[in-house]
């Protein structure tokens, strides 16, 4: 079932879009089933669960950390996750930078932008991102590389609403790429799209889709 689900998603993906299999709450055996198909990108959203899977699963897995990260758990994720999608505050960004510097590594991150109507979704507001990237301190970050943006659309059935939110995120991305990140060749990822909305996200320019239930749940 996992094998078939991955195959059916992959056959619809353009070559420039990476499938991240969101394996949160899944046992290592389920991850290994996906791994056997050649899938190497997996996403986790809890620091302790990530750390335990990271420790016991093959080292050629590319781990994506996609959940809200508390600053006191930065150590568990920095230097182990290949990409942290969920930088949602200045404080978290500087904490990761400090930990990466201590480890002597360079941590790749995405800035999470609040695009949904719902209050509960996390991320920077556009004004906050502007403030962040225009702060001289931001340009002195030595141990993180900002590789793009991440966002979550509203959980609604109105696909026009969802599409508009993805378009907003793509606009933010294009704007930042031409301004604050014009000299950063790594700023090229747009993480958007989940099981319910990824085809729309791909049409609107996503390069990383984060799929959990469509891979791991029985969708028959
Ligand atoms: C759980 C989760 C996903 C995957 O959601 P599905 O709807 O199961 O595909 C994607 N992104 C984030 C941030 C998540 O927490």
Helix and strand arrangement:
Blueprint: H1 2-10, E1 18-22, H2 28-35, E2 41-44, H3 47-56, E3 62-65, H4 74-77, E4 83-87, H5 90-103, E5 107-113, H6 126-134, E6 144-151, H7 159-178, E7 189-191, H8 198-203, E8 208-211, H9 213-216
Parallel strand pairs: 1-2, 1-8, 2-3, 3-4, 4-5, 5-6, 6-7
The protein binds pyridoxal-5'-phosphate (PLP).
Pyridoxal-5'-phosphate binds at residues 22, 24, 45, 66-67, 152, 194-196, 210-214.
Q: Could you tell me which ligands this complex binds, including any ions or cofactors? A: pyridoxal-5'-phosphate
Across the major sheet, the strand order is 7-6-5-4-3-2-1-8
CATH superfamily caption: Alanine racemase
How widely separated are the two ends? Answer: 9 Å
Biggest beta sheet attributes: 8 strands, parallel
């Amino acid at each position: 079932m996992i094998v078939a689900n991955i195959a059916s998603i992959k056959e619809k993906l353009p070559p420039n879009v990476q499938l991240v299999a969101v394996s949160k709450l899944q046992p290592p055996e389920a991850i290994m089933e996906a791994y056997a198909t050649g899938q190497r990108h997996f996403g986790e959203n809890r620091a302790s669960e990530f750390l335990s899977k990271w420790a016991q699963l093959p080292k050629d897995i590319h781990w994506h950390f996609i959940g809200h990260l508390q600053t006191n758990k930065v150590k568990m994720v920095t230097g182990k996750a290949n990409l942290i999608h969920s930088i949602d505050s200045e404080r978290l960004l500087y904490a990761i930078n400090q930990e990466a510097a201590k480890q002597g590594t360079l941590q790749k991150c995405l800035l999470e932008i609040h695009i949904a109507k719902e209050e509960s979704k996390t991320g920077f507001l556009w004004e906050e991102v502007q403030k962040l990237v225009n702060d001289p301190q931001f340009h002195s970050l030595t141990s993180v590389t900002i590789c793009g943006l991440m966002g979550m659309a509203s959980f609604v059935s109105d696909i026009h609403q969802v599409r508009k939110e993805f378009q907003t995120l793509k606009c933010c991305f294009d704007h930042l790429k031409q301004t604050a990140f014009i000299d950063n060749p790594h700023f090229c990822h747009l993480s958007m799209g989940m099981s319910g909305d990824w085809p729309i996200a791909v049409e609107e320019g996503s390069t990383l889709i984060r799929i959990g239930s469509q891979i791991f749940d029985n969708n028959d």
